[in-house]
Specification:
The chain is mainly alpha-helical and 90 residues long. The chain has a domain of 62 residues. The protein is built from 5 helices and no strands. The chain is globular, with a radius of gyration of 15 Å.
């Protein structure tokens, strides 16, 4: 008997689908996309950023938004950024 995923499991599956699916086609691989962002931030701030840094900075953006109340998309996107950070840490 197949168990239906609970809300948390469903959110994780949706986050996984986002970071491995259409967004990579649109924006490029996470290394490529976050590498571009890191270079732009470095130019703007005059300090070095890595693609790994970008994942956690974008996660913190989502945390900031969640501080105003729960939003499913911010929650899901935050999970995706954390997963990408774990991938880039390897």
């Amino acid at each position: 008997m197949n168990k239906m995923p609970n809300k948390g499991e469903q959110a994780l599956m949706e986050a996984a689908a986002l970071i491995t699916g259409p967004r990579q086609t649109t924006y490029g691989s996470p290394d490529e996309s976050f590498g571009k962002i890191a270079k732009l931030w470095a130019m703007y701030k005059g300090t070095e950023f890595t693609p790994y840094d970008v994942t956690y900075m974008l996660f913190l953006l989502k945390v900031s938004r969640l501080m105003n109340g729960y939003h499913e998309d911010s929650n899901r996107d935050g999970m995706g950024y954390l997963a990408l950070g774990a991938e880039m840490a390897e």
